[in-house]
């Protein structure tokens, strides 16, 4: 599944899982046109969450609710532990390699972490819809789309 399809499929799911809403009448308009004022300039409503124009916020809400965002710190630490030894000997002492690196050069560490995450995003393994505040595994999104899009696209 390419990124474009993921985004358009998420959009379709967002349409399916939210209700057209006329803000001026403050009424649901499931048919896409408000029965009271005949406007088709409608917001999307998620009951219990809120209403707003557009579907981007709906997608963000759905993902927040249904999927777990990737703990980018954790996956970076795991990668380091797999590439290097879990512990490192300095003199006669043994330290956690991750803690040792992180504590000794926190700036370099965080630069390397964001480069690693950017790399995964470029390889189309991770994706963010909010400029990098939250990342999701693309394969998680694909299964989410499969589960939620039956018959819609
Ligand atoms: Zn109306």
Query: Biggest sheet, in brief?
Result: 4 strands, antiparallel
The helix-strand sequence is HEEEEHHEEHHEEH
- Assign an overall shape: elongated
Helicity level: 40-55%
Number of strands: 8
Number of helices: 6
From the structure provided, what is the oligomeric state, counting identical versus distinct chains? single chain
Number of folding domains? 2
- Structural Rg: 22 Å
Distance between the termini: 14 Å
Secondary structure elements and pairings:
Blueprint (H helix, E strand, L loop, with lengths): L2 H15 L1 E4 L4 E2 L14 E4 L3 E3 L3 H11 L5 H12 L3 E4 L2 E4 H8 L1 H17 L3 E2 L8 E2 H11 L5
Antiparallel strand pairs: 1-2, 1-3, 3-4, 5-6, 7-8
The structure holds zinc ion.
Task: Give a written overview of the molecule.
- Helices cover 48% and strands 16% of the residues.
- It is α+β, with helices and mostly antiparallel strands and 153 residues long.
- The chain has a four-stranded antiparallel sheet. Strands 5-6 form a two-stranded antiparallel ribbon.
- The mean pLDDT is 93.
- The structure holds zinc ion.
- Zinc ion (ZN) binds next to loops.
């Amino acid at each position: 599944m390419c990124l474009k399809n993921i985004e358009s499929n998420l959009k379709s799911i967002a349409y399916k899982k939210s209700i057209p809403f006329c803000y001026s009448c403050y009424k649901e308009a499931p048919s896409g046109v408000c029965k009271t004022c005949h406007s088709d300039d409608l917001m999307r409503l998620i009951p219990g969450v809120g209403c707003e124009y557009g579907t981007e916020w709906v997608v963000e809400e759905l993902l927040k609710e249904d999927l777990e965002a990737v703990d980018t710190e954790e996956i970076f630490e795991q990668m380091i532990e797999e590439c290097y030894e879990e512990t490192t000997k300095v003199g006669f002492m043994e330290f956690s390699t991750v803690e040792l690196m992180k504590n000794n050069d926190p700036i370099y560490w965080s630069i390397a972490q964001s480069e690693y995450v950017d790399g995964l995003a470029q390889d189309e393994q991770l994706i963010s819809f909010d400029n990098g505040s939250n990342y999701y595994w693309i394969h998680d999104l694909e299964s989410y789309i499969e589960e939620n899009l039956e018959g819609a696209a």
